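User: Fold this; tokens only.

Assistant: Input:
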Amino acid sequence: MSGFIAETIDVTTMFPGGMPCTICSATDVVALSLSTLCVNICLLLRAYAVTDRSHWLLVTSICLIRPMPGMFWVFVTGPTAVTRDHGCVNFYPKYLPPLRSAADVAINLVFSVAFLRVIIEQYRVLGNRCWAKLRSD
């Protein structure tokens, strides 16, 4: 939903009297950070439930999810410009993409390890019957 609202606002930049580039940029940043945050929270809830409420998972995940929205502050405070060829353009520091990637990889590794532990445990308990149980679910 946040992506739809952001795109609707972005389209208005093409029309005379439309939203300024900085507002569109800020809307995009908020939509992107909300989307990432919601996905990570949903994954955390699922992982927390299937790992029998593991405290290490909860603490580690919260520590890794917490700085994510803060990274987008760099986008909001960065300069924007409207170009003839590309429309509204954000300028951000060169360190931001690797930093964002590292944060995404770290939290995804934590969730992957948690879900793989559950899969391995289910396979130990059910053996080859786990595929039949999975098909029946």
